[in-house]
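Q: Hi! First time doing this. I have a protein sequence and I read that you can turn it into a structure. Is that right? Here it is:
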Amino acid sequence: MEATARKIETGLMRNAPHNAEQERHLLGVILVNNETFYRVSDFLESSHFFIDIHRQIYETAAKLIRAGKTASPITLKTFFPGDAMVGDITMTQYLLRLVADATTVINSEDYGHAIADLAIRRNLIRIGEDMVNIAYDAPVEMTPEAQIEDAERRLFELGEQGRYDGGFFTFSEALRNAIDMAAAAYQRDGHLSGIATGLRDLDRKMGGLQRSDLIVLAGRPGMGKTSLATNIAYHIARAHRVKEEDDGSVSTVDGGIVGFFSLEMSSEQLATRILSEQSRVSSADIRRGDIDENIFAKLVTTSQEMSQIPLHIDETGGLSISQLASRARRLKRQRGLDVLIVDYIQLLQGSGKRSSDSRVQEVTEITTSLKALAKELNVPILALSQLSRQVESRDDKRPQLSDLRESGSIEQDADVVMFVYREEYYLANKEPAPNTPEFFEWQEKMSKIDGLAEVIIGKQRHGPTGTVELQFEGEYTRFSDLVRDDRLPDRYE
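A: Yes, that's right. Below is the predicted 3D structure, encoded as structure tokens:
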């Protein structure tokens, strides 16, 4: 313990990484030629400067330049006290020396990046110091898991701040990006701009799952929300295909790596569902072991094929939205991530900052955070949601946007809202007495809707709303494209 403390103490006595000469040079060049400021202002902030007086000079110069005024030693000196000293010289003399020592604007951008990088290193040290200090003397309410999540969040935020991309694109660059997207869509299965769900009619309506979108899939219990989500997750993971870029990095061409937060079911239950769907062996038979040798061999073969797909399941119940975000970031960093699925919103918890918060406020925080996470990770997030009981009180039980539980924020934050509806589920519970006129009428209705499911797109920012009909095989919890008579091949007598 003492040796560790000595190491920490020695580390704290080191000088924080910085380069005062680069800071002076960059400030001098900016004061000589104010246009230089716009080369670095997109990524360099005053807080990146290590020396306090440099921080003040950069911040003051930035305000003047952005206001359309000239930043020079003469204009800057009026913003500092007349008796201000920098070492053994006056502030005016120091500003004049910065200009005198400035050489060329050619390296100014490189100097700006170097200063920002050194600031990131200092922040890394600060995060490390905080981790050590909290670990030594942690508050009672802060668990080790909470400390790890906080450190991961701060590190991820720091990593994002270190990215220098962004800003304006010229129209020619925007056009090139649009053509690249179209080319990628052309090469992808189904010619979609987004990630294919594996359900042809749904993909045609939505163009696939679009990156950075929050897609809400809602329904009453028994409608098949989780089944549809697992169907989509498995198809995307199974279709995963990558290519190596010129710089040696790997990018996804088709399908994707899927993260699945199963807050209600265990990973074993979820795997059983997918195994049943793919092998077409009833999940009830699999659970009971009601299978023969041939079926067992079929299950083994199917499971071997399935074991290679990039589908990662987190079965932890009672997750908070911050914990979920932290784990999603970690998955993307360690294994990659193309699609995130959350089953389901009402089982997530808010941050718990205010005990007086209502459930509506908590759900608002959750949906806002999910949308922000989709943009941050640049992946589509498919989040499942329960519907309120008011659906059951209507004659037409097809869901509407107003049926979403704690609906305001869900409807507002989501880019797409879809509902799963199966009339067969409701009609099956209204079976009349057998061999009556009502029974035969009921039987005829059941035959028309047997295995029929509807996905109702109630909201879509980028496309049309409407209904997509699907085939549902309840025995295998499997959704598939609906085969219609007009799509069958010609028959020859």
